[in-house]
Design a protein that fits this description.
With 156 residues, this protein is an alpha+beta fold. It is 26% helix and 37% strand. The protein has a five-stranded antiparallel sheet with strand order 1-3-4-5-2.
Length: 156
């Protein structure tokens, strides 16, 4: 598995097949979950109603999937987005296992493709991202295409 960079990565730094276990993890707090649900007015019982969820198969509230996706992509960003110029697509999103308050998420990335962009100063990198909880259960998977700066035009 490739070591995450402590320096911003440019287009030339990525190779197809590179695997990253990103260095940071994040424990999901009630504040993370409820604040975002309130901001986007997602008032679904699965996120807000502990009494109803007590009778559900999960026995407790479930973290909103949009937060899970954002958290995993955010944890991967230090290695895959520092030199991003544009996000081109996000496809094949799968929320594979529920996330609960106090779960800790970790991010992983595989470089799936590299191609020239329509600009001389950047290229396109295709990533497969996934997030796992503290029990090694995959909670999220998705594919992302990003336009990333070339060191030859921007870097030192």
């Amino acid at each position: 598995m490739a070591q995450p960079s402590h320096n911003a990565m440019y287009f030339e730094d990525f190779e197809v097949g590179d695997l990253f276990r990103h260095s940071r993890g994040k424990t999901m707090t009630e504040m993370d979950h409820i604040l975002m649900c309130n901001l986007v007015m997602n008032t679904a019982s699965a996120h807000f109603d502990e009494a109803i969820m007590a009778d559900h198969m999960f026995k407790t509230r479930v973290v909103y999937g949009g937060i899970t996706i954002s958290m995993v992509l955010g944890l991967a960003a230090q290695d895959t987005a520092e030199n991003a110029i544009a996000e081109l697509s996000m496809d094949n999103i799968r929320l594979r296992h529920p996330v609960f308050h106090n779960d800790t998420l970790y991010a992983f990335t595989r470089v799936e493709g590299i191609e020239d962009g329509e600009r001389d100063d950047a290229g396109i990198v295709s990533f497969h991202h996934w997030g796992m909880n503290q029990d090694d259960k995959i909670v999220f998977e998705g594919d992302r295409r990003t336009l990333i700066k070339r060191r030859s035009h921007w870097g030192s």
